[in-house]
Amino acid sequence: MDVTSDGSRAGSARAHMLQSGRDFEIHGSDTILEAALHAGLSVNYGCSTGNCGLCRARIVSGETVPVHPYDYHFTDAEKSAGYVLMCCHAPASDLVIDANEARRPEDIPHQTIPTKVRTVSALTDKVTLLQVQTPRSNQLRFMAGQWVHVSIGEADGEYPVASCPCDGNRLEFHVRNIPDDPFAEKVFAGMRTGETVEVNGPFGDFVLNEDSTRPILFLACNSGFAQVASLIQHAMALEQSDPIHLYWLATHPSGTGHYRANQCRSWADALDTFRYTELVKPSVTEANVHDAFEEIARTYPDLSGYDAYIAGPYSFLSAGKAWLLAHGMAADHISGVRA
Q: pLDDT-derived band of residue 7, with 50, 70 and 90 as boundaries?
């Protein structure tokens, strides 16, 4: 990467992370932290403004330049060892970086963050898209596939984060209009832009196995798509070359069923490695799930070399896992979550 006399940068640099062994590109306008998050890395960070020091990392080789002022104080020993703040530095050359990376859900601390409602938009008459924004200095760290506790006043609920961890500042939730859910009732009664929604989490271990190089089948039923959507976007951020196929079963196609079909089709149009298939059945019985999954067998007669991530009601999980095992998939290649 070229650094001019006025400190501006052009081109891109390549970075290698020692802990995970991952490589990623850092383009001209990005800090090291921004590029790492966009590439799907779960690096440690906090304020993103140079105060907390959580994103400090040791530059093993290469050169960096400060691009934002910061208040965090490094000790003389840290300076000598080559530590920098990833949120305030950019590369002046290719880099090898030793930084703290979350590899498991338990590596992510629980956080309580007040967020502001950005948009509330109906996807169908039964599902609403809720987008909230965290403070810039207090973004949510989470792994794709995890869920959080959300509350506004006395109304609360538990929802998977449907967006990608690569942007912890903007969180997306798919809220169903179901009875006895006070948070959903609040959303559908007319939640307003700018209202404060408290987010606490993350929770859950339905996360991507980033060490696997097997092709992936994502299997969702109705609003189980929310957690699967986060995993898919994370896999895309990782720029995995392994094929991905999403099968989405809907029992109410016009209501809580394929409510983001256009998004799925756009992924399929944009990516050679992504495929999308819609499945429809009147109810989630074992017979219906097994019958729907025969579509998978017609495309993939041997599932022994695949991973599967399955999200939906308990009946869908139970019947789906049994079908996958009966068709050659190894038990430790299947990850499921009730949704």
A: very low
The stretch 15-39 carries a mean pLDDT of 91
CA dist., res. 294 & res. 319, Å (int): 13
Please give the single-letter amino acid code of residue 9.
R
- pTM (two decimals): 0.87
Query: DSSP letters along 201-231, please?
Result: EEE------TT--S-EEEEEEGGGHHHHHHH
Rounded Cα gap, residues 169 and 141, in angstroms: 9
Per-residue pLDDT tens for 195-204? Answer: 999 999 999 9
Instruction: Please tell me the distance from the alpha carbon of residue 83 to that of residue 210, in angstroms, as a whole number.
Output: 27
Q: With beta carbons less than 8 A apart as the criterion, state whether 172 and 162 touch.
A: yes
Q: What is the DSSP letter of 43?
A: B
Weakest mean pLDDT among 6-20, 56-70, 128-142, 238-252? 6-20
- In this structure, are strands 196-203 and 147-152 parallel, antiparallel, or unpaired? antiparallel
Instruction: Measure the CA–CA gap between 316 and 321, rounded to whole angstroms.
Output: 8
Pairwise CA distance, residues 247 & 23, whole Å: 30
